[in-house]
């Protein structure tokens, strides 16, 4: 298909100033409690390692469902995020808990293979019980300017996903500048992405507030034009509560309260959960507890 | 924006800055010759918190005799001490003031927000640090004047009378006092009557710095006090920041005297958004341009010109962004828009709101409901305004933005310059050559490109036409406090 693609001018300095402004928001007492729980419920608890095993996945799934049983009233995380090979195990251990299974696919993390293999990868994950697919775009093709290729690839994967939700990973750390991030975001959305996601976590820098803001603004533009909502998932590098709360402030002020749910926003993170739990316990009891009180999975 | 979902609203809890660490006296006298002394007028007036209408303190009302005492003290200090002091010794005192201001930054920020109504985020992150930066910057010049103006033999002027407005009370005091002292002058400064407190706290701090008595005198009062200062025969220079109307009166009164004069007056800045701009950042620039300090900014970007091809896109984003602004308690760390500085100013702003609607322009207001008590104005946008409307001609000095559209570069330059003012302007475009084209053709003292309301002590600030003359900041600002052979 013919794409009318145009880089949207973005001023890096202006983006940085706006992000600094989000960080001046002071989140206290009730708002902090609510924010911490909300962040917890938005986590895609992730393990994406060569050494992943069913045993590792079993432990992570238990954690996803029982974040910190000492503290009643906690939500579960939104999903676990694993390789296709691990989806069946996750399905078995999560049962009917409501925690979703996201599977990376399409030759994650590089995406350097052909479409048939990517489709097979996707199909394998879905057949094994994945609820959501996190695909990677072909960054090489994108940087070559072969936008049609990238678009077609995303729409083919989207078709293969059927009614499963598709998250499209842009790997912004490889895209070079914010204008490319905006262009890739729009391209992914137009090609059918239900969510756009910053990073695989395998490349530095992973998610930053600046990159996330640019992507949120593309989502807002698309909403203004079509009335359709698209989700956002920053992944990698968000490891403490304060930063997570500032991301939520950014989300609220850029897109509005309607996005403040795990249906439309996710954190791709693993160590963030324990810091959120630590802060929640502090808010509840008034004292910090040592890291030893929070399980590592 | 999207469908309202009650299950996932998230509002920020109150996060007020503590006031437990500050001290405001019940009553403030005049700071003359290094001491606080009661006014000969025996009169005091009340200063209130515009966010609560509660009285904060009583302030001495200086009459002509008090002004005379202050000028005499400044003259004596100039002749006997300050003009004879080694420049590097002068610098030590100015550096000391800068450091003391940094040490007491929190206290100054809180009092500034209480007395003037500005959000604590701004007084904490902008007013106080920038004020300290001005003292630091000018302290550095004190013993290098010969290098700043080579072969021009710079000399101090004498006693300087300084009158400052209520929008940035501490910062304007610093803009005025720091270069005057660095150049070797002594000072009589009068703050605005609604916002005297931080100037008086600065007087305490200056006294604590050990600077010789009489070098800085701070007297309080309203227009009459200012008039007495302007007309005092032993003043060598007047530096005024405030309204164009008062500036004209001062200039008339100084005609035929030897007194030097610098004026920094009103403005109605054009903030120009081209279709090739980074629109989201431009919207942020529009917000900062007009809603910073409730629009009580002489260089506020109060007229926004948007190229017709992107006017819908800009308007929608702007309204959306305005909806996320938080209006309320100036001491709350999350407040974006604080209180209007005084009842009088609120009446002025409201008059323009009525006028704009009467003129037939569509008004958009955003933000939460402001508190019941105090003086408040919601952030306001007038859309599709005409160049000939009163609201796009006169300075409103409040959180009120008027939006006009344009089609070509020449058209927007003509419209931007078609005003008696010329203090500042903003240009938003991704194209560098366009920026340089405009900066050379816009008749404004400051032109910001892809940003707005940026200040630095090293950069001169001042206006064209009825926005005044003379510069403040940088070497140019320093030269206004010197005479040359």
In terms of topology, how is this protein built?
The complex is a heterodimer of chains A (about 300) and B (about 475).
Chain A: H1 12-22, H2 29-41, E1 43-46, H3 54-65, E2 79-82, H4 87-94, E3 100-104, H5 115-127, E4 132-136, H6 139-144, H7 147-161, E5 165-169, H8 178-190, E6 195-197, H9 209-226, E7 231-233, H10 241-254, E8 267-269, H11 272-285
Helix pairs in contact in A: 1-9, 2-10, 2-11, 3-4, 5-7, 8-9, 9-10
Chain B: E1 27-28, E2 30-32, E3 35-37, E4 44-48, E5 55-60, H1 64-82, H2 87-103, H3 105-116, H4 120-141, H5 145-148, E6 154-156, E7 159-163, H6 169-182, E8 186-190, H7 197-208, E9 216-218, H8 223-231, E10 237-241, H9 244-254, E11 260-264, E12 270-273, H10 279-291, E13 303-307, H11 311-322, H12 343-358, E14 362-365, E15 380-383, H13 390-393, E16 400-406, H14 409-417, E17 424-428, H15 432-441, E18 446-449, E19 468-469, H16 474-479, E20 482-484
Parallel strand pairs in B: 1-5, 7-8, 7-10, 8-9, 10-11, 12-13, 12-17, 13-16, 15-16, 17-18
Antiparallel strand pairs in B: 2-3, 4-5, 6-20, 11-19, 14-15
Helix pairs in contact in B: 1-8, 2-4, 3-4, 4-6, 10-11
């Amino acid at each position: 298909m013919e794409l009318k693609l145009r880089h949207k001018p973005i001023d890096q300095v202006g983006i940085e100033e706006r992000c600094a402004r989000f960080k001046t928001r002071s989140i206290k007492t009730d708002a902090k409690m609510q924010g911490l729980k909300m962040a917890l419920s938005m986590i895609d608890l992730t393990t994406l390692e060569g050494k992943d095993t069913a045993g590792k996945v079993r432990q992570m799934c238990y954690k996803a469902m029982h974040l910190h049983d000492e503290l009643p009233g906690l939500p579960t995380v939104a999903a676990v995020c694993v390789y296709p090979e691990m989806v069946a195990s996750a399905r078995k251990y999560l049962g009917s808990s409501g925690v979703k299974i996201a599977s990376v696919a399409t030759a994650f993390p590089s995406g350097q293979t052909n479409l048939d293999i990517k489709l097979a990868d996707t199909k394998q994950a879905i057949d094994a019980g994945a609820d959501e697919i996190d695909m990677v775009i072909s960054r090489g093709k994108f940087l070559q300017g072969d936008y049609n290729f990238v678009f077609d690839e995303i729409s083919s994967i989207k078709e293969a996903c059927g009614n499963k939700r598709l998250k499209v990973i842009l790997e912004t750390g490889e895209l070079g500048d914010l204008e490319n991030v905006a262009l890739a975001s729009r391209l992914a959305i137009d090609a059918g992405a239900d969510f756009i996601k910053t990073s695989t976590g395998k490349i530095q820098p992973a998610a930053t507030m600046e990159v996330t803001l640019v992507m949120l603004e593309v989502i807002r533009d698309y909403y203004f034009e079509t009335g359709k909502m698209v989700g956002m998932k920053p992944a990698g590098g968000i490891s403490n509560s304060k930063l997570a709360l500032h991301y939520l402030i950014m989300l609220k002020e850029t897109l509005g309260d309607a996005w403040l749910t795990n249906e439309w926003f996710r954190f791709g993170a693993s160590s963030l959960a324990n810091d959120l739990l630590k802060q929640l316990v502090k808010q509840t009891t008034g004292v910090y507890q040592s890291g030893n009180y929070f399980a590592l999975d | 924006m999207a469908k309202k979902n009650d299950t996932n609203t998230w509002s920020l809890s109150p996060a007020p800055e503590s006031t437990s660490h500050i001290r405001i006296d019940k009553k403030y006298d005049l700071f003359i010759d290094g001491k606080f002394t009661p006014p000969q007028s025996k009169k005091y007036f009340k200063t209130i918190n515009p966010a609560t209408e509660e009285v904060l303190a009583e302030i001495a009302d200086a009459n002509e005799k008090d002004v005379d005492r202050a000028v005499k003290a400044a003259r004596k200090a100039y002749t006997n001490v300050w003009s004879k002091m080694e420049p590097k010794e002068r610098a030590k005192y100015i550096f000391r003031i800068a450091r003391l201001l940094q040490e007491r930054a929190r206290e100054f920020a809180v009092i500034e927000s209480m007395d003037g109504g500005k959000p604590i985020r701004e007084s904490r992150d902008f007013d106080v640090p920038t004020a300290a930066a001005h003292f630091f910057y000018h302290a550095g010049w004190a013993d290098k004047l010969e290098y700043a103006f080579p072969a021009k033999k710079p000399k101090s002027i004498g006693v300087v009378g300084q009158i400052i407005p209520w929008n940035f009370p501490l910062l304007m005091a610093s803009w005025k006092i720091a270069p005057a002292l660095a150049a070797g002058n002594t000072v009589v400064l009068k703050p605005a009557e609604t916002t005297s407190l931080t100037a008086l706290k600065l007087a305490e701090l200056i006294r604590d710095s050990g600077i010789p008595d009489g070098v800085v005198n701070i007297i309080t009062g309203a227009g009459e006090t200012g008039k007495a200062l302007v007309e005092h025969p032993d003043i060598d220079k007047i530096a005024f920041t405030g309204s164009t109307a008062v500036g004209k009166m001062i200039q008339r009164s100084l005609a035929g005297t030897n007194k030097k004069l610098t004026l920094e007056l009103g403005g109605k800045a054009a903030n120009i958004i081209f279709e090739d701009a980074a629109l989201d950042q431009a919207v942020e620039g529009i917000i900062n341009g007009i809603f910073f300090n409730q629009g009580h900014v002489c260089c506020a970007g109060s007229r926004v010109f948007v190229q017709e091809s992107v006017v819908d896109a800009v308007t929608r984003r702007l309204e959306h962004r305005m909806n996320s602004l938080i209006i309320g308690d100036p001491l709350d760390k999350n407040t974006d828009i604080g209180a209007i500085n005084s009842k009088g100013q609120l009446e002025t702003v409201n008059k323009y709101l009525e006028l704009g609607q009467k003129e037939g322009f569509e008004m958009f207001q955003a933000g939460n409901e402001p508190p019941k008590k105090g003086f408040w104005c919601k952030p306001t946008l007038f859309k599709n305004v005409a160049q000939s409307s009163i609201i796009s001609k006169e300075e409103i000095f409040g959180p009120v933005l008027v939006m006009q559209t344009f089609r070509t570069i020449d058209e927007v330059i003509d419209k931007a310059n078609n005003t008696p003012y010329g203090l500042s302007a903003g240009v938003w475009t991704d194209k560098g050559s366009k920026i340089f084209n405009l900066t050379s053709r816009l008749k404004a003292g400051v032109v910001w490109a892809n940003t707005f309301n940026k200040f630095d002590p090293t950069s001169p600030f001042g206006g064209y036409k009825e926005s005044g003359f003379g510069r403040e900041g940088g070497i140019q600002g320093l030269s206004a406090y010197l005479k040359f052979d």
